[in-house]
Design brief:
Layout: H1 24-33, H2 44-53, H3 55-63, E1 70-71, H4 73-92, H5 100-125, E2 131-140, E3 146-154, H6 159-176, H7 197-206
Antiparallel strand pairs: 1-2, 2-3
Length: about 210
């Protein structure tokens, strides 16, 4: 199992992820504008409207991620298209019986949250397929700007690769964070050859 070290992420109050998609505003403006045509019961209209209005903020509240919400453009497109498809099908129907329409919106919302969680976590897990520092491009869900995630993969096939990976990590820390000091003796030769995952993790945590 890879130890994923987030090395260049800024903590920020995020509003969700789907709102970063290029079609989000047009799609959800349409959904909100036509919500009054989807239920026989007038009580469903304000409930459904509130669900659509608060969609982005509620998404972040439900993600419960231990890592910042950074999603790749490819995965964002996949999630957005899946959500739009389900919403478009829901809106193709005529008026629904009381309670049905907001319940379906909640179901789509929960499925969207699951898809976003999986998309973000899967990208992090993919880091284990690499040896050493690895970077991939993302979109920050906090402000929809281009960002990137840097992590450290332990999938090294030889001691030589492992030594190069750790040295690359030290160079990265030195350049971007100015954290390397002479006390990092546990990550310097000749200790690298027999360094275990647990030893490396403990050393980095101590510094």
């Amino acid at each position: 199992m890879a130890l994923l070290l987030c090395l260049s992420l800024t903590v920020a109050l995020a509003r969700g992820c789907l709102h970063c998609h290029s079609n989000f505003s047009d799609k959800f403006n349409f959904y909100r504008d036509h919500v009054n045509l989807k239920s026989w019961w007038v009580g469903d209209i304000p409930v459904s409207g509130s669900l659509l209005t608060d969609w982005s903020q509620d998404t972040m509240n439900e993600l419960h991620l231990a890592i910042p919400a950074e999603i790749t453009r490819e995965k964002l497109d996949q999630v957005a298209n899946a959500v739009y498809q389900k919403m478009d099908v829901l809106y193709q129907g005529k008026m629904y019986f009381p309670g049905y329409f907001p319940n379906e919106l909640r179901n789509i919302f929960r499925e969207q949250v699951r898809l976003i969680q999986n998309a973000i976590i899967e990208s992090r897990i993919d880091c284990q397929r690499h040896c050493g520092v690895f970077q991939y491009q993302t979109i920050s869900c906090s402000n929809c700007t281009d960002s990137h995630v840097v992590c450290f993969g332990y999938n090294c096939e030889s001691s030589a690769q492992w030594e190069m990976a750790v040295q690359g990590l030290l160079r990265y820390i030195n350049i971007w964070h100015n954290l390397v000091s002479p006390s990092f003796t546990c990550l310097e030769p000749p200790n690298l050859a027999n360094l275990t995952l647990e030893d490396a993790s403990e050393c980095l945590m101590q510094h």
